[in-house]
Amino acid sequence: MEAATPLHAPAPRVVGILGGMGPAAGADFVRLFVQACTARMEALGIPVRDQAYPEHWLAQVPIPDRTAALGDARAGAHQPGEPLLQAMGRIAALGARTVAIACNTAHAWHGLLQQRFPQIEVLHGMREVSAGLAARGVPAVGLLATRGAYAAGLYQRELALHGILCVLPTEAERDLLMRGIYDGVKAGDYALARRHFEAVARALRERHGVGALVMGCTEIPLALDAGPDGIELVNPSAVLAEALARHAYARDQPPQSAGLLTMR
Amino acid sequence: MEAATPLHAPAPRVVGILGGMGPAAGADFVRLFVQACTARMEALGIPVRDQAYPEHWLAQVPIPDRTAALGDARAGAHQPGEPLLQAMGRIAALGARTVAIACNTAHAWHGLLQQRFPQIEVLHGMREVSAGLAARGVPAVGLLATRGAYAAGLYQRELALHGILCVLPTEAERDLLMRGIYDGVKAGDYALARRHFEAVARALRERHGVGALVMGCTEIPLALDAGPDGIELVNPSAVLAEALARHAYARDQPPQSAGLLTMR
Question: A72 in contact with B at a CB cutoff of 8 Å?
């Protein structure tokens, strides 16, 4: 309730969230980010108040379906690259210095976005998740994802780089996941989604004995809040939101004008 | 999962959400807006998919405390008017045609924002809530709000215009509400917030016999999900999010270029 007083610490960085894929997942990402900022302030000893949060912008823009585009390499309006770049350009114009992509499958375009916006740090969800699992010594995980994410090898590559075994569902199980994501969460039928996700989670556990599952599509945690039979669920959105909060409050940040001239 | 195909219906309007007051409430407003859009599409017979949601931008910017400013009319950096106008200007530049303010107390600056941005429709939360209550024939409500919102008469004025009696807490109860909002929700202590909000809700019910309470601060519903003793809780964020979704899918919209020339 006190009036705003100038902060003695440097203001946190402006950050952006590239969402809309789908919009419910984007909204949930902001919730997780705000929670992560509160935790970060508590850890850093910064009094928690509205004005101490980083300025952040959420862009929820219509982006063509990522999995469909990965299955059809032709150029055209069904490709998400151009709309992703346009949204990123507008987030950059708002002053964001670090950006998180609130969609796993859209990380297939991470390299393009990072290359075209070298002045912005585009976080990489799979790298953050894999590094976190490796730091905890997790030897193997099961992966729940879209067909697009499996085909692009997004998680498989990063997990392998961190020495973590990644077990995958069968073709029939991938169909179940896609139905849970598209006919379930994206269409508003959360009960159907949950049933399909739980069936695949149980199958991976029984077949491979993995104790943890990565929910590698932002829609999955919206319908699956706990793992069946005590399986640990890893929510990459929470991991990425924590990484974004860490960057927002990073103390080693150069002055903004110098930062804009620094290439990675 | 189908590839994006051109929509035959006109694309929904681009809309903006002015948030950060506080950030958790802004995040929750986006969740409510996405839910309201899903319901709107179902009502209009539009197939629900990611690309059918309106483009929307959430600005979570640091805005000086609204209640503190309303208690200190001097010009200065503690006044929210200028930062609100700046954020609104950036939302306007992103192409938004309708904007919702995700903070009740900030509606004290609604007139300023609407006057400076005549090309944008700035929704008015209290008007939406009062019209909704009047349509349902509700005769009287209790009001839970900040000291700033009480002092500015934001709800009292609109409820009176709609012929609805508005009962207010005592000074001691207003202190409890402020502690619930600032030491509770804004500081991350939801249990404390809930205890204080429930105590005031019960007191208003016992003293005035009102059957419904308006949660006239966006932080209150974050800690109070059900009314004690069966009191109906009205969540203005949900009402405003529905109004924003209604405007986003409005069919009577003029072409965007003509719309920009139309003054209200």
Answer: yes
CA atoms within 13 A on the CB side of B240: 32
Output the pLDDT for position B9.
66
pLDDT per position as a tens digit, B42-52: 999 999 999 99
What letter represents residue A6's amino acid?
A: P
Cβ contact A92:A18 at 8 Å: no
Q: Alpha helix (H) ranges present in chain B?
A: 23-44, 66-70, 81-93, 110-116, 125-135, 147-152, 154-161, 171-179, 190-208, 220-223, 236-248, 256-261
Q: At B207, is the pLDDT very low, low, confident or very high (cuts 50, 70, 90)?
A: very high
The second-level CATH assignment, the architecture, of B126-236 is: 3-Layer(aba) Sandwich (3.40)
* CB pair distance less than 8 Å for A68 and B30: no
Residue with token string 């009287």: B140
CA distance linking residue A92 with residue A110, whole number of Å: 15
* A26–chain B Cβ distance below 8 A for any pair: yes
Report the pLDDT value the prediction gives residue A9, as an integer from 0 to 100: 66
Return the domain boundaries, chain A: 15-124+239-261, 126-236
Token pair for residue A125?
């969800």
Same fold, B15-124+239-261 and B126-236: yes
Which CATH class name applies to B15-124+239-261? Answer: alpha beta
Least CA distance to B63: which residue of chain A?
Answer: A51
**Interface contacts (A, B; CB < 8 Å):** 150
Measured between CA atoms, how close is B225 to chain A, in angstroms?
17
